[in-house]
Amino acid sequence: MDLSKRFNKHLNQIEVSMIRQFDQSISDIPGILKLTLGEPDFTTPEHVKEAAKRAIDANQNHYTGMAGLLELRQAASDFVREKYQLSYDPQDEILVTIGATEALSASLTAILEPGDTVLLPAPAYPGYEPIVTLVGANIVEIDTRPNDFVLTPEMLEEAILEQGDKLKAVILNYPANPTGITYSREEIKAFAAVLRKYPIFVISDEVYSELTYTDEPHVSIGEYLRDQAIVINGLSKSHAMTGWRLGLIFASREITAQLIKSHQYLVTAATTITQFAAIEALTAGKDDALPMKAEYIKRRDYLIEKMEAMNFQIIRPNGAFYIFAKIPVKEGQDSFTFLQDFAREQAVALIPGVAFGQYGEGYLRVSYAASMETIQEAMRRLKVFMEQYAD
């Protein structure tokens, strides 16, 4: 029986992530060093792991409510109030999800219908578009290259006006993957002034919020657009808990009442043991990201120094843990092939910029969520490769 033509037709528009495609294309190289993953090389803090063990020993192995443990939602409410001046009621304005990815899926499937349009500043994390595509909606990218990857209120409003009534949502991600760009309070206020004029949702992916390297703390757009914003965060980056899969949605009471429907039927509820660990992370471990952040800054600065000396053009990232660098121009050289050659000649893997969409072509992404020793050796090998490349 041939069922090949009976799948969701939108699946034909989705491919396996180019990041994964690239990884597979070089995975047979012995001993390859990878600066590819957006995953901290640090381990989950010991006190967080101990909290999970206590929950296991206490037989906390049953479902929680759909929205998650109230104690966790209270901890999350307190955390974002102290850190980002946000006010969300733990009773009915916070949802606990299985990572930020499920938070995105629950949010986008709840608000989008076939034919809707979603605006996305680009280059961007490649996980947004497939979710939008699966429900029959469309992504329209805003090219931020002319302004060194920084979105402006003028660029945003121009894009909104071009889309008209089909526009349902704008996705913001800051600090941004892959560029590391983030925004000041004044910039966020300016975005909010534009967005509040239009009846659209604002999905703000702020999962790197604790990894902001400016003098000013992270500013959430939820502070200024409470009636429109769906703020997404989680513990993967801040607490080195990628495999624990703990995400959070913060939204108004009215929005949350709808999001919980899609969340419920996607997953029922987040993992109970992880929720108990998350309570510990957001309370006793509320500043666990600080020593990690200090180390990331050292790695970032080292990479910038070494790569600029090799003629890579870099916009200094002020958040997350990525360098997004323009490859020195060589006619006919695309980023995928360039990095395949580098991987095969020097056994180092970086991510081609085209993996982040058409506006990422000509760039590469380096993750500095790896040890300094690994980074130093990778840069030594890159220097050898670039000397050959220049000949």
Automatic annotation (TrEMBL):
<protein>
    <recommendedName>
        <fullName>Aminotransferase</fullName>
        <ecNumber>2.6.1.-</ecNumber>
    </recommendedName>
</protein>
<feature type="domain" description="Aminotransferase class I/classII large">
    <location>
        <begin position="32"/>
        <end position="382"/>
    </location>
</feature>
<dbReference type="InterPro" id="IPR004838">
    <property type="entry name" value="NHTrfase_class1_PyrdxlP-BS"/>
</dbReference>
<dbReference type="InterPro" id="IPR004839">
    <property type="entry name" value="Aminotransferase_I/II_large"/>
</dbReference>
<keyword id="KW-0663">Pyridoxal phosphate</keyword>
<dbReference type="GO" id="GO:0008483">
    <property type="term" value="F:transaminase activity"/>
</dbReference>
<comment type="similarity">
    <text>Belongs to the class-I pyridoxal-phosphate-dependent aminotransferase family.</text>
</comment>
<dbReference type="InterPro" id="IPR015424">
    <property type="entry name" value="PyrdxlP-dep_Trfase"/>
</dbReference>
<dbReference type="InterPro" id="IPR050596">
    <property type="entry name" value="AspAT/PAT-like"/>
</dbReference>
<keyword id="KW-0808">Transferase</keyword>
<dbReference type="GO" id="GO:0030170">
    <property type="term" value="F:pyridoxal phosphate binding"/>
</dbReference>
<dbReference type="GO" id="GO:0006520">
    <property type="term" value="P:amino acid metabolic process"/>
</dbReference>
<dbReference type="Pfam" id="PF00155">
    <property type="entry name" value="Aminotran_1_2"/>
</dbReference>
<keyword id="KW-0032">Aminotransferase</keyword>
<dbReference type="InterPro" id="IPR015421">
    <property type="entry name" value="PyrdxlP-dep_Trfase_major"/>
</dbReference>
<dbReference type="InterPro" id="IPR015422">
    <property type="entry name" value="PyrdxlP-dep_Trfase_small"/>
</dbReference>
